[in-house]
Design goal:
Length: 633
């Protein structure tokens, strides 16, 4: 109908607007409306969402109950928009990776992020934005579930989005208010619900979707959840459940040192392994290289299980409605590729990748051409290097650099920089002439990275078609992450053989040496916190760092495995001691702060419900006094 209105000519926009309104009233809104965020820019989506609000319908004589009963897909569309909002974070408010061991904030004049410094409070805008959008996604999903037929595609997708959003909230905030009701009134009585209850509810929902829904077996194209996505999410939830409930930490000192008591009940880890195997059924990691997996033209490959889809075609202004991920990890390269140096390689990352491991070159752009995107768009030719030049990792020798310069002499401009970041001894930066000879003394890594156009940047999310305007999909569930979930589940069950085998699947695909045991693993970086009892966890987290670098997983990985404080003290240059991660209540900030607005506006939550590390000292003292008085009575 709309196609006819446009094709007949004349005042086509008016004709299409009239016909579209009549069509909605006659046909209703189908599940296809859920794909609107893939095709409309932010401005147009805001207009659509505003139009779909109940208040806009009531003026036309249709109350919200009647409208949503006929058009539940409108609420599902809103949930997808919320998902997109909290999944796309800028370099400065990246709550998923900042404040960890692998990313260094060399933000020049902008000031260090409170997320890196652990100075955030309940008023932190980054955590508040995530919390609000995730809760909005859940409420819109609850609305779609309420009004849609229980056996409809709309209800199935909404249930998945609700479970996914609750899981994401628990990984950042711990216990949160839980509701399966569509909130349409001013009620504000929603207490925090313990993790075990939330995990129980969302796993039951996902298992029912996997076993009884009509969701597709897999879906790598549309951005809709599939049964494979349900299995992948179940694996991650059961893994977190095992760590959060079954693994005990005896004291704040043990929390600081990453120490924990091995679980006596490993049932949740066994379930994590079971669901990971189901999610990975049919996945062949050997079918494509790591470099091929992350080629921008390969965003629908079998390893990307569930994604937020982006589509630049038809967007009115591609400079404003893209996402932030391509420019969020690297040196100061704005405006060429949008990087602002807030998430550069940490010194640990510099030395993390081993010789022969192709994941380094596949993750980072190491050759900067006159047009940055010539790496992708001029493949097979020999484009000219820019003044930024070529970066080599720490394990490349002087002789190998000289040979490379000789072999690529025609591509090297007279002002191209030739740089090696790190060496066998550490992380100092060595400059070379265009002929490959050493030039001057090594430079301090932090000092060097404070310069403009210095250091590598992550290329996994590059969009060579739209260039600085990134329309690369945001990958939310990835087969590599699930393979590492499988390995972690084996480790926590005490099965070292299966743990090593699961890691070797990914290591061998990348060209890294196969491991024979945990003891055989050698750290490629300098660490002051080596502990034989934690070497298996260190190995796991190192492999996670290599395989899933910049995929917004690191903070949750460190928190889940109890290594958040240990790793920050050892590898985050903005943390000088464990005390930097304590609040005025004397407790470690092991979760993000519950937004202050949530505490003030929710009648069932008080200041005492705030997470450890964020409660005011006077609140702690008052509670202690009350407890003493109650005891005396």
């Amino acid at each position: 109908m709309i196609r006819n209105c446009i094709s007949i000519g004349g005042d086509s926009d008016t004709l299409a607007a009239i016909a579209g309104g009549i069509a909605e009233a006659y046909f209703g809104l189908s599940d296809a409306a859920c794909e609107l965020p893939n095709y409309l820019d932010e401005r147009l989506m805001n207009i659509v969402m505003s139009f779909l609000e109940a208040k806009d319908k009531s003026s036309g004589g249709i109350d919200d109950e009647s409208y949503f009963s006929s058009n539940p897909a409108t609420l599902l569309t809103s949930a997808y928009v919320n998902l997109r909002s909290y999944s796309d974070v800028s370099s400065s408010n990246n709550i998923f990776d900042k404040g960890t061991d692998l990313y260094y904030d060399q933000s020049r004049s902008q000031g260090k992020s409170e997320l890196d410094l652990y100075s955030m409070t309940g008023d932190c805008e980054s955590t508040k934005s995530f919390y609000v959008n995730a809760m909005s996604c859940i409420n819109n999903a609850n609305g779609a579930i309420k009004y849609a037929d229980a056996s409809s595609e709309t209800a199935y997708q909404a249930r998945f989005l609700r479970a996914y959003s609750y899981f994401m909230l628990t990984q950042q905030f711990g216990a949160v208010p839980y509701s399966e009701q569509f909130i349409q009134n001013s009620s504000r009585d929603y207490p925090r619900v313990d993790l075990a209850t939330i995990y129980t509810n969302i796993t039951a929902d996902l298992e029912d979707l996997y076993n009884n829904s009509s969701l597709a077996a897999t879906d790598h194209v549309t951005g809709k959840p599939s049964k494979q996505a349900c299995a992948a999410l179940l694996a991650k939830i059961y893994l977190a459940w095992g760590w959060d409930i079954d693994v005990q930490v005896a004291s704040q000192t043990d929390l600081q040192n990453g120490k924990y008591t091995a679980p006596t009940n490993t049932a949740n880890f066994a379930k994590a392994a079971e669901w990971a195997q189901k999610a990975l059924s049919g996945v062949n990691f050997a079918a494509q290289s790591f470099e091929q997996k992350w080629n921008p033209s390969n965003q629908t490959n079998d390893e990307f299980i569930f994604s937020v889809k982006y589509q630049a075609t038809g967007v009115s202004d591609i400079t404003q409605y893209s996402n932030s991920q391509a420019g969020s990890y690297g040196g100061y390269y704005s405006p060429l590729v949008g990087c602002d140096s807030r998430n550069q390689q940490s010194e640990k990352t510099v030395r993390l990748f081993e010789k022969g491991d192709e994941r380094y070159e596949a993750t980072f752009m190491t050759a900067f051409y006159a047009d940055y995107y010539d790496y992708w768009n001029a493949a097979g030719t020999q484009p000219q290097l820019s003044s930024t030049g070529k970066f080599f990792p720490w394990y490349v020798t002087d002789a190998e650099i000289q040979t490379w310069c000789t072999d690529h002499a025609s591509q090297i401009a007279s002002n191209s920089k030739i740089v090696r970041i790190g060496d066998e001894a550490g992380t100092e930066v060595q400059l070379y002439t265009t002929a490959g000879a050493k030039s001057g003394n090594p430079l301090n890594y932090a000092t060097y990275n404070g310069q403009t156009n210095a250091g590598v940047k992550v290329k996994k999310f590059d969009d060579p078609e739209n260039k600085a305007n990134c329309y690369h999909d945001i990958i939310l569930l990835d087969a590599s992450d699930i393979q590492l979930t499988l390995a972690e589940a084996y480790l926590m069950q005490g099965d070292e053989g299966k743990f090593i085998d699961a890691l070797n699947v990914l290591r061998q695909r990348a060209g890294a040496d196969a491991l024979s045991s945990i003891a055989a693993y050698t750290y490629s970086y300098t660490t002051s916190v080596a502990d034989e009892s934690l070497k298996g966890i260190d190995l796991l987290l190192d492999e996670r760092g290599r395989e899933t670098y910049a995929q917004k997983l690191r903070w949750a990985d460190l928190r889940r495995t109890k290594q958040l404080i240990r790793y920050n003290v050892a590898f985050n240059p903005q943390i000088t001691s464990a005390n930097d991660m304590k609040g005025t209540d004397g407790l470690f900030k092991f979760y993000r702060p519950i937004p202050q607005a949530e505490i003030e506006n929710n009648n069932a939550i008080s200041a005492s419900d705030q997470n450890d590390g964020y409660r005011a000292a006077e609140t702690e003292a008052a509670e202690s006094t009350e407890s003493t008085e109650e005891g005396a009575e």
